[in-house]
Amino acid sequence: MKTAFYCLIGLLLVFSSCKKLAELTQFNLNYNTETTIQAGPASNLPFDVFTPEITTASESEYEGKKTSKNLVQSILLRKLVLKTDPTSGRTFDFLNSIKIYIAANGKPELLIASKEGIPDTIGNELALECTTEELKDYLVQDKYKLRLEVKTDKIVNQDIKIRIESLFRVDAKILGL
């Protein structure tokens, strides 16, 4: 009986240690950028909106987590939210659909988030559905770009500044563990 008890305690310690170790090797990276959708007519045909290059500062980010980009095992997009300036009174009611693609030096463009059938009742914040694509090769680089493929169903009578907030989950070896 005592042996079974000690085995059970041992197993619990091993599993809780593995979970704590996994927590040490995983962390979040937040990257934000802005872009502008130009005023224009409603178009159910897609048009592109580009962001400026986004600097990852990956080396300093990884050093702060006691790792380096060559020890990164995986990076996945967990959350991508678009926001308009709440003081502008502008919402995302003009959007019909949106797709967001990532590109980096030497890497093919990749769809990372989208939203179809956006209701007219949407406010000034829009959470997109993220893909499960592996993004390590894009985020360990110094810079990346986003391209928004937009379809509108209302006239955009003034330029609309959009803030793009993204949350990436990184799984890396910490201090070589």
Explain the overall architecture:
Keywords: Signal. There is one protein chain. This protein has about 180 residues and is α+β, with helices and mostly antiparallel strands. The protein has a single domain (about 30-170), classed as Jelly Rolls, CATH 2.60.120. Helix content is about 20%, strand content about 45%. The chain has helices spanning about 1-25, 60-65, 135-140, and strands at about 25-35, 45-50, 55, 70-85, 95-105, 105-115, 125, 130, 145-150, 160-170.
Topology:
Elements: H1 2-24, E1 26-37, E2 47-50, E3 54-55, H2 58-64, E4 72-84, E5 95-104, E6 107-115, E7 125-127, E8 129-130, H3 136-139, E9 143-152, E10 160-172
Antiparallel strand pairs: 1-10, 2-9, 3-9, 4-7, 4-10, 5-6, 5-9, 6-8
Quick take:
The chain has 177 residues and is of the alpha+beta class.
> Would you identify the regions where 5 or more consecutive residues have pLDDT less than 50?
11-22
User: Which CATH class?
Assistant: Mainly Beta
| Total count of domains | 1
The fraction of residues assigned to DSSP E strands is 35-45%
Quick check: average pLDDT? 85
Category by helix and strand content:
alpha+beta
